[in-house]
Amino acid sequence: MNWKLIVCIILYVVAFYLQILGMMNLIPIYVSTPLFFIIILITLSMIINKKRFKGFKGF
């Protein structure tokens, strides 16, 4: 497994925890929601970009 993907999954768990704290009004929800969205976006883009054609290496 790629180390970047492992870091993104750990950040996802942390952002999810912050989102739960935001729903309990312990931290501002307008801080936790964009952070949670950005982490999900980065993680999904890393997973999707693995199978992209990157060109021919012979040239």
What can you see in these coordinates?
Keywords: Membrane, Transmembrane, Transmembrane helix. The protein has 59 residues and is an all-alpha fold. The protein has one domain. 69% of the residues lie in helices and 0% in strands. The protein has 2 helices and no strands. Helix 1 (3-23) packs antiparallel against helix 2. The chain starts with a helix and ends in an 11-residue tail after the last helix.
What distance lies between the first and last C-alpha atoms, to the nearest angstrom? 29 Å
Percent of residues in helices: 55-70%
Low-confidence stretches: none
Oligomer: single chain
Q: Which key features would you list for this structure?
A:
59 residues; mainly alpha
Short description:
The chain has one domain. Helix content is 69%, strand content 0%.
What's the arrangement of secondary structure elements?
Layout lengths: L2 H21 L5 H20 L11
Helix pairs in contact: 1-2
